[in-house]
Amino acid sequence: MLFNSVEFLVFFVVVTVAYWALPHRFRWMLLLAASCGFYMAFIPIYLLILLFTIGIDYVAGIQIEQAQGRRRKQFLVLSLVANLGVLAVFKYYNFFTDNVNALLDSLHITHHALPYLSIILPIGLSFHTFQAMSYTIEVYRGNFRAERHLGLYALYVMFYPQLVAGPIERPQNVLPQFHEVKRFDFTQTLIGLQRMLWGIFKKVVVGDVMAEYVNSVYNHYEVHSSWSLLLATYAFAVQIYCDFSGYSDIALGSAQVMGFRLMENFRMPYFAKSVTEFWRRWHISLSTWLRDYLYISLGGSRLGKWLTYRNLMLTMLLGGLWHGASWNFVIWGFLNGLYLSGEKLLGVRVEATERLPWWSKLLRIGLTFHLICLTWVFFRAESFEQATFIVRHIVEQVPGTSLAWEPGTAGPLLLGLILLVLVEYGYLRGRNTEAIMPHRTWTRPLAFSLALTLLIICFGVSTGEQFIYFQF
Amino acid sequence: MKRFALFFALFAGLLLLIDHGGAYVLDRVYARTFVGQKGGILNTYFARPAPPALVLMGNSRASLDVNPDSLPVEAFSLAHPGTSQIFQSGLLSLLAERRQLPRTILLHIDLDEYIHPSFPADIRNLRHYYGQAPLVTQYSKELSRWEPLKHGLALYRHNGRLFGLAKNQYLQRQGAAPSQGFEPYAPTAQDSINTLYSTHYLAKERYQLNRAHLRYLHDFVALCRQHRVRLICFTTPYYQVPPHAPQSAALVDSLLRREHVPYLNYAATAAPAALTAMRFWRDATHLNSRGIPHYSQLLARELKPLLAVQAPEPAGGQPSAYLALAQR
């Protein structure tokens, strides 16, 4: 059940109306049942995997809190092994097998080849696994008291707005909200609905239209000219932003309609003046997770210059692998690690860039965008060979076919891009969600919602394209 | 809660008002557009006092490679770039519904279609005619069970077409005249590069035959038979025959032979002698305006004897199961 489908619209309306109609004590049951239904719409049997890790983490959380000494660590390890074990089997086993078999093959050892598992990756596995791990780690660190209510803990992992593609929440932010008695708030509901519309607009009017161009070029990359490849790479940068931040907007908006505040996941990342700043604005819930639970655990920047670089590289390499089991994602992580280490070496400070003259800011924004685009080539390409071919051909300026942008495609795209920059610039200036979602009077939200709805009806791609981050 | 209900009622009311008002205006603009794709050419066709003797249908290879004026009888091109067989079958269903069927249809078969996954979403190009042609409605409903709900909003039938419509209107006001549907590509300096690269790509493409597409061709043949329209199929040449062409052609031919439909396949062997030079090509699968006259003449020559033969009477064939379903 995709967020950009009519199925979800019906599901959302039914669940939200029922949610407000029920007394507080029954609401968690409704949300949990709805979340189970939402997850089971993909592959029903995979619900068992979720229930397995929920059971282990729930017990581990309570035991970590109650136990003393080494036993606390043992329960933490049990929780981490269970979560990472599920990830290893479903996400990384075939990648591991592929590489071991290639190695054995190169050594002419063919009779010991490892068997492959014929399984489909559970949707959003990396997201809810990381969210579950953040719970036991926070309980272990003493930052959060273990949740005694199994149903609410299960809801923390399974809350349908953020179940399959984040934001990767922290227990401190979400669990207390499940205990609170929520009262219907007109303004919050309005802002939430507008945010959902905005997310759908980004996804189906800008992202999916960009995707059509990107797919036509990247699927036939060998025949395209350097300019076509470069344009498609820029288009992919816009596509992935609109796709993923659009998803996050729908997630945050649908939670807000029910009175829940989830963490912000994006803050205009392509306006970043350095890669370091980019990572404070892009997929914030993952970058802060990696910072809090991996980078800092490795020692962060406390252990000297060289170990800081090592920690940055390791964090970003694992961040790359988090996305997918492929060498392209490892390279994507490596490049990001390299940029971050380079900026550390050059002494780039995010706060200092704010005081630079406008032309210097503009130059840095351009440079950062291009550095990020280079990483997107590896992210989008289906193989290492394809990615290097595309990068080489962009640099060498080779001829090839060029795809024309027809008015039917370019028109709505241009319109969408202008609206995107205008609205999100307002967001950047206001620095909060409400800044882009007018709500003080009836006229503005009405006009904003009507305009977005009409744009979606007239220009939205209605084929129900998958969200890119669902695969992770 | 009451405040929200009031807000929502206001929103829904205004949306319906704008939706229906906007769709009314756009429908009128659409109906008065007679140039370009996205409806213009189709409107020109429907505005004719009587259907032409022959209608050319297919994708860009039919619309760009064949000049209808070169054919031996009065012809009109309803070929639409970027479409597949499902679109052609839906369009034929619309022509039948409007009683605007010609005596003969010259249908282009793109062999590349039969090595790719099906494109059922292609029928959305005819969403303007949802509810007006049985096959368009039926294929759309098969696409998604929510399609009828989406069509509850009148503006949805203009989804993705507004800028194309605006361009056509602009061209019309600038003096562009309605045509018989033929819009060739002028040669450009990029042509030889396009031809080389796309030939290379086609030669390397991995493929798997897709029989699912035959269903739409079957519906097309059945509809022609039901309305006693003579059907002739053809495939335009490639610059170089790609590896998949013979197998795709055999698949298509197995159906066409069974249905006694003549099939002129110019993709079976290397490009006809007159078209081997690269200067005639826009890319591996399309001719430019230098190559079109040569190919159109060749096609016209081979069509002549086929058009001279009396159209076969329906051999007691039943409409396809899908067609029967659509007619219920």
Automatic annotation (TrEMBL), chain A:
It is found in: Cell membrane. It is a multi-pass membrane protein. Keywords: Acyltransferase, Cell membrane, Membrane, Transferase, Transmembrane, Transmembrane helix. One of its GO terms (biological process) is alginic acid biosynthetic process. GO terms for cellular component: plasma membrane. The chain crosses the membrane at residues 5-22, 28-54, 75-93, 113-130, 150-168, 321-341, 362-379, 409-428, 448-469. Its main location: membrane. It holds the Pfam family MBOAT. One of its GO terms (molecular function) is acyltransferase activity. Belongs to the membrane-bound acyltransferase family. This is MBOAT family protein.
TrEMBL record, chain B:
The lineage of its organism: Bacteria, Pseudomonadati, Bacteroidota, Cytophagia, Cytophagales. This is SGNH/GDSL hydrolase family protein.
